[in-house]
């Protein structure tokens, strides 16, 4: 990617931006794992937020004045609703570092579907959880599935910290999803 300088928003900043939109969203990535385990486990370069396909326009309206770029195959291009983007990088101005990464989830028949294999799916209600403070975050078994495509050192660290805390149903779902995908 070009221009990859990041200064990630805080969770409170994300809430302030996205709660007024009334769209479903969840903190994702390594920060979601931290929220699940209840503590900061490692440094994070960015903050990822999962949104549902179809809510991009509402989020873009909320980020009026921000620069939004589709990130695909190592390139950044100015975002358009017609892109069918899965990853959108956002920053408040052209000279500012990137502040927010939106991850757009596919929905089929009102179910989240894993974009790498649509046989793996889950009801939207089972996609996330909330912290005691009400912060929505992507369930760890789903986040770990996303991280399984290209495993990096930080993904291994997230797996090691989250796996012991997963309940049996979440472990079974992750195991089955990994076998399918």
Task: Please give a structural write-up.
The chain has 181 residues and is of the alpha+beta class. The chain has a single domain (11-140), classed as Beta Polymerase, domain 2, CATH 3.30.460. Helix content is 30%, strand content 25%. It contains 6 helices and 10 strands. Strands 1, 2, 3, 4, 5, 6, 7 and 8 form an 8-stranded mixed beta sheet that branches. Strands 9-10 form a two-stranded antiparallel sheet. Strand 5 (87-91) and strand 6 form a beta hairpin. Helix 2 (29-37) packs parallel to helix 5 and helix 4 (140-147) runs parallel beside helix 6. The radius of gyration is 16 Å and the shape is globular. The chain starts with 10 loop residues before the first helix and ends with a helix.
Secondary structure blueprint with pairings:
Elements: H1 11-18, E1 25-28, H2 29-37, E2 48-52, H3 56-62, E3 67-72, E4 75-78, E5 87-91, E6 100-108, E7 111-113, E8 121-123, E9 128-130, E10 136-138, H4 140-147, H5 153-162, H6 168-180
Parallel strand pairs: 2-6
Antiparallel strand pairs: 1-2, 3-4, 3-5, 5-6, 6-7, 7-8, 9-10
Helix pairs in contact: 2-5, 4-6
Order of helices and strands: HEHEHEEEEEEEEHHH
List the domain count as a whole number: 1
* Main sheet attributes: strand count, strand direction, barrel closure: 8 strands, mixed
Number of helices: 6
Low-confidence stretches: none
Secondary structure: number of strands: 10
Q: Into which percent range does the helicity of residues fall?
A: 25-40%
